[in-house]
Amino acid sequence: MDGAKRYIVEGFSFLQATPETLEAPATALLRKITPINFPGKVRLDLVASGLPLAVWARALSKEEIVLLLERGACQDIGVGWAVEALKMESAQLASGIATRPCAQANLLSRDDVLAQAAVARQLPVLALETQPEADAHRRQIPERIHRYTVWRALQADAEIARRKTVDAINAGEYEEILEALFELSESSDDAELFANVMIFGRNVAWLPRLKRYLDEAPSVVNVGAAHLAGPSGLPALLADQGYKVEAIRLATAVTQKNRVIKKSPLK
Would you say residue 90 has pLDDT above 90? Predict the structure, then answer.
């Protein structure tokens, strides 16, 4: 981040800022994580027992509910909001929690590392979308997809797709991230709808704001890796607008041996 004048992120969660916020100090991104294994912690299996659940959440097993609560605990959203998500008529919030597994002990996420770097350099943080703008995109996704996503993300074999995503990010092969999305979707139609709305649609919506930010000052931009893939990815959209885009790949320890590459059905 040396030389940057600002740090650009997708948006601020409603827990960190007011809904319309587009700029905040970097300290707003520092998360207070509740460790899963801390002395005297609330027994999540006891919390799950007898918890009043929304109709859709009653189909989840106790083990799946506990796993969702654990993932809430290791995110800035916390166990309390994970509990509330299971009571809501819509599974939208729960799907966001379920699809973010906890990091390994004592490891920081990419977002946490960059947030700390931004704080150390006293960089202002600018968002590409407000919370209402993000919610407007999420409301375009049918409720059945949110509900399926919750269940699918809590299954043991979802870890395989997650590892594939991590390998793809480390290797700079962003198209494979879309393949992992396809594997976790109930159908190719659902996967394509989700990608068109939540990835490519948001890219197009972000572009005017992103161009203005980049033109105003040197910036570091942090978005989900899926937003970088394909002709509707941010690098391609910026290149179409006349920006010089150059990929820089750092050395990686990811092995390519025995990797199976499948053609993604997503466009």
Answer: yes
Q: How confident is the model at residue 192 (pLDDT cuts 50, 70, 90)?
A: very high
Q: What is the mean pLDDT of residues 112-131?
A: 91
Instruction: Measure CA 1 to chain center.
Output: 21
Q: pLDDT class for 42, splitting at 50, 70, 90?
A: low
In this structure, the number of other CB atoms found within 10 A of the CB of residue 169 comes to 19
Residue 32, pLDDT score: 47
The H or E element spanning position 94 is helix 92-98
Tokens of 179: 């393949």
Average pLDDT value over all residues in the chain: 82
Query: Between the CA atoms of 32, 151, 188 and 92, what dihedral angle is there, to the nearest 10 degrees?
Result: -50
98 neighbors 153 (Cβ within 8 angstroms) = yes
Q: Residue 27 is which amino acid? A: T
* Alpha carbons 177 and 199: distance in angstroms, whole number: 12
Strand partners, 220: 7
Q: Which helix (H) or strand (E) holds 62?
A: helix 62-73
The rounded radius of gyration (Å) of the Cα atoms in the chain is: 19
Give the three-class secondary structure for 256. coil
CA distance 128 to 142: 24
Tokens 């906890």 sit on residue = 102
Length of the chain: 267
Strands (E), 182-232: 219-222
Residues 6+ apart with CB under 8 A from 12: 21, 24, 28, 125, 127, 131
Element (H, E) at 238: helix 234-240
Amino acid at 127: A
